[in-house]
Amino acid sequence: MKTFPVFALLLASLAGHAETPQQIGATYGAEAAAQQAGFTPSARRGEILFRQRFAHNDKMPACTSCHTDNPLHAGQHVVTGKTIRPLAVATNGERFSDPAKVEKWFGRNCREVVGRACTPAEKADFVAYMTEVR
Fold this sequence. Notes:
Low-confidence stretches: none
Largest sheet: 2 strands, antiparallel
Strand content: under 5%
Order of helices and strands: HHHHEEHH
Strand order of the largest sheet: 1-2
Number of strands: 2
CATH class: Mainly Alpha
CATH superfamily: Cytochrome c-like domain
């Protein structure tokens, strides 16, 4: 996987300043396209991932467990009870604007909910959905 070191360096170089959700999604999309010819991010696939139930964690079987069925609304962590700001960019302008934070939360949440690291394609699709949902 030759693209990973290049991608990691790109993320590290972007971490110092804010990006747009579109730029962050494009970065994941480029990595996915390097792995899968013809890949194009899909908001529809992102929505499916957001709503999908996984068998990995009974307390958090889906993103919607903490983030509600509507990403435009605030959620609540099912274990800690902490309020979570909306995922949708339309109602939370800071969402998907810091590459380091985006990668941190994908890392944590994918492991906890999906049971594995999310692929660059899944991340690109998820960001596309959260950018487009209204």
